[in-house]
Amino acid sequence: MNIDTPAAKLPEATKPSRREAEEAVRTLLRWAGENPDREGLLDTPARVVRSYEEFFAGYDEDPEALLARTFEETEGYDEMVVLRDIRIESHCEHHMVPIIGRAHVAYLPGTRVVGISKLARVVDAYARRFQIQEKLTAQIANTIAEVLQPRGVAVVIEAGHQCMSTRGVHKPGASMVTSRMLGAFRDDPSTRREFLAMISPRSCQSLEA
Known about the structure:
38% of the residues lie in helices and 22% in strands. It has helices spanning 18-31, 44-55, 63-66, 116-127, 133-148, 162-165, 184-187, 189-198, 201-204; strands spanning 70-71, 81-92, 98-108, 113-114, 130-131, 152-161, 176-183. Strand 2 and strand 3 form a beta hairpin. It is elongated and about 65 Å long. The relative contact order is 0.14.
């Protein structure tokens, strides 16, 4: 069910060295018309490489392992669990520029629940990779469904894409909304409506029909 593949992370044996990565940044600076040897840019290649380690830390995370520890002592709780407004910081795989937004994640527990921080970490693990929003939405929902085996999962992401706002069509302020509904959230309209009522009305307008 999970559409992420094990090959998403480049094998260490073929991964460029830090020096090679820094030299690639120097090449881009020269291509842009800059002199990478001037004072203000001397440390830029090293800074860019360090920032990439943070931006793309998701390649070193196993999202399924993050959900491995669950709790069964729930006093029979079987209602919806919703985590709203999880900040998304990702990068467009087509233009390598930021995607900034928020995710709303919900599930209907079966016999187990998971710590809410783990839901946020699963979102980060997939977001901190090169992405398209549609795939990101599906990966999060599919992984929660696969590992927790709940009665339903819902994920809605709304985000702004700098590949659209700072280049190309130049449409700042536009946002994209994607959703993935599984189990009861797909099959039961009342469950779907309850979830959408719990998140931003702006997210619900195109999804309630």
